[in-house]
């Protein structure tokens, strides 16, 4: 997915009252302030209550569900034949505790970055590192590159299994 498409989708959602945070590879690049590698999709986090509105907006633009083994009510992928959006939804209770969906703690939704010079909400650097450290999969080369780039820029220590060889 190209940076222009990311900004177009981000602005579409925001202008329709859907608060959105950029996650995944584009979230890393937002923190770094530049695109560091190609991205096949856009990962976003939204409040679960906004899911129907998001689906309507994207379906009107030709997006359809893409079947995956890990599809759920709170994590699904929509595509239009060229672009894919990996949607993660969540619900917080009145005290700010995550009670449903993707396990985003409230404080993990406080970052800001830039894509093509435009400010976007994203996962803050310390949470990017925490999420990768707690991942239940062996990191790929791109994950190691991403985490180390964030750690280098923000003076953070990479997790043991993400240290460069």
UniProtKB/TrEMBL annotation:
One of its GO terms (molecular function) is transferase activity. SUPFAM superfamilies: Nucleotidyltransferase. Pfam families: Aminoglyc_resit. Keywords: Transferase. Transmembrane segments: none annotated. This is tRNA nucleotidyltransferase. It comes from Candidatus Daviesbacteria bacterium RIFCSPHIGHO2_01_FULL_41_23. The lineage of its organism: Bacteria, Candidatus Daviesiibacteriota.
